[in-house]
Design a protein that fits this description.
- With 96 residues, the chain is mainly beta.
- The protein is built from one helix and nine strands.
- The longest helix is centred in the middle third of the chain and has 14 residues.
Length: 96
């Protein structure tokens, strides 16, 4: 997500990663807000509607055909998440 002071997104962002010859395109909606907090033994993901759609899109990319186990996306404060968020890793694992 591209932000200016105040963490207000100004445009949508796309990130393309290629793993084992498979392109994975992660997109953020322009007004997506996603915050991740650790509260004791729980993790809270708080997001507006655009943020929830963005996260759903990230998960669908990782669930796509041809995407190998171990493919992942790191999100953290200033990199897709709101200021003050704890880091979040979305990772595909095909082990039973």
């Amino acid at each position: 997500m591209v932000s200016h002071p105040g963490n207000v997104p100004v445009e949508s962002t796309r990130l393309t990663a290629v793993t084992d010859g498979v392109a994975q395109v992660f997109s953020w909606e322009a007004d997506a807000r996603i915050e991740v907090r650790a509260l004791g033994s729980e993790v809270v993901i708080e997001a507006n509607a655009a943020g929830l759609r963005t996260l759903a899109g990230h998960l669908l990319v990782l669930a796509g055909d041809g995407v190998s186990g171990g493919s992942h996306l790191h999100l953290d404060d200033g990199n897709g998440l709101e200021e003050g968020s704890v880091g979040l890793v979305l990772e595909r694992c095909d082990d039973a």
